[in-house]
Specification:
seven-stranded mixed sheet; alpha/beta; 2 domains; Peripla_BP_I; Rossmann fold; globular; disordered N terminus; Leucine-, isoleucine-, valine-, threonine-, and alanine-binding protein; Leu-bd; signal
């Protein structure tokens, strides 16, 4: 009899935990993960700070209403150190131990791609922030049921960069330097190359490096010898600053161009004069009136300016809250279904999640130029 009662108790515990679905009492638990240590920690810290700030604002206003009941929001965050395997580990912890109803982040494609099987098994949706590789949400033509994002994707970003370089900057010969060990960098390099050649341009040099490299002079020397009109650098700000400085030391004067891995205060402080006059594709114009209120709130709370990631995770939170309210229940599977087709006016633009791709439909890209150490908006540019 005692053994029978213990068995029943265990079953009840499992059932109750299974039914919780991220909502415990009057609280909805939401996961976040990203890099809080390493080269990309500045972005991870910015994302998690924004999530905590927004949740606090919602809670101070009485919480959010889901299915006729008010809930407070609780953020549970982990550092995945920018590592793909650690991303899988923390998502297992968030879904298995913490029982979150949904997850926000990460910003890196290489960390967002491998978590799909864990999400599917747990039936918990993830909304990536600045993870732009197509494989984050779609693999072999099939949409991943629990992976979503609020940013545009690399085929579009690569086409925008190539089009702007060819049509607006007059470049007909381009060189590429990219990180062969990074999914984001590989993807963006591929789509720039395809679209630049489609325009009628030629790729005169295509050089790679590995994560952790700090000397880019051998590759840059080959690029210099090829005589390009523009050099495309689809990787992150630290390596951009290092390679830009080395390029200028070698006498390379051509315009440098990149993607959404560039913008950070650290690019300006580390790159200095080497990145002056350079261009990159971004998700928004930092001077847009729509983003000023968030920027001011973040500065007031944390005493420093927000990074790019903050704007995207801000909109990911808006999308998640709307999906919870649409679902009418605190359940990961229901929230995932509610995310399909949902439409929200975010600070980075209108976000309508496609049921077919789980990507936002028709988000504009912004072209920014570095002028006097500032990111200066040039124009909204759509791939032609």
């Amino acid at each position: 009899m005692k053994r029978t009662w213990m068995a029943v108790a265990v079953v009840l515990t499992i059932v109750l935990l299974g039914c919780a679905g991220g909502g415990k009492g009057d609280t909805i638990k939401v996961g976040w993960f990203g890099a809080l240590t390493g080269d990309q920690a500045v972005w991870g810290e910015n994302e998690f700070n924004t999530v905590k700030m927004l949740f606090e604002e919602y809670n101070n206003s009485g919480g959010i209403e889901v299915g006729g009941k008010k809930y407070k929001l609780e953020a549970v965050g982990y550092d995945n150190k920018g590592d793909a395997q650690e991303a899988v580990n923390v998502v297992k912890r968030l879904t298995g131990q913490d029982k979150v109803v949904a997850i926000l982040g990460p910003n890196a494609s290489g960390n967002a791609i491998p978590i799909a099987p864990v999400l599917e098994q747990a039936k918990v949706p993830d909304i990536a922030t600045v993870a732009t590789n197509p494989k984050v949400t779609v693999l072999d033509g099939k949409v991943k049921p629990y992976n979503f994002r609020v940013c545009f994707i690399d085929p579009y970003q690569g086409a925008v960069a190539a089009g702007y370089a060819f049509d607006k900057l007059g470049a007909t010969k381009a060189a590429i330097l990219y990180d062969v060990s990074d999914d984001y960098s590989q993807g963006l390099r591929e789509f720039f190359k395809i679209n630049f050649e489609k325009k009628g341009g030629s790729i005169v040099a295509d050089e790679s490096f590995n994560a952790g490299d700090v000397d880019f002079r051998p590759q840059l020397s080959k690029i210099k010898a090829a005589g390009p009109d523009i050099i495309f650098m689809p990787y992150f700000f630290k390596e951009v600053a290092l390679s830009a400085n080395q390029a200028r030391e070698l006498g390379i004067t051509q315009v440098l161009m990149g993607g959404d891995g560039w913008p950070s205060e650290q690019l300006i402080s580390m790159g200095g004069a080497a990145v002056e006059g350079c261009y990159f594709v971004n998700h928004l114009d930092y001077a847009d009136p729509a983003v000023q209120n968030y920027k001011a709130r973040y500065l007031a709370k944390y005493g420093k300016e927000t990074e790019l990631n903050g704007f995207l995770v801000h909109d990911a939170v808006l999308v998640l809250v709307a999906a919870l309210q649409k679902a009418g229940k605190v359940n990961g599977e229901a929230v995932a279904k509610a995310l399909e087709g949902i439409e929200v006016q975010g600070i980075t633009g209108n976000i309508k999640i496609s049921p077919e791709t789980h990507n936002p439909e028709g988000k504009d890209a912004a072209i920014l130029k570095i002028v006097n150490g500032q990111y200066v908006f040039q124009e909204k540019y759509a791939a032609q």
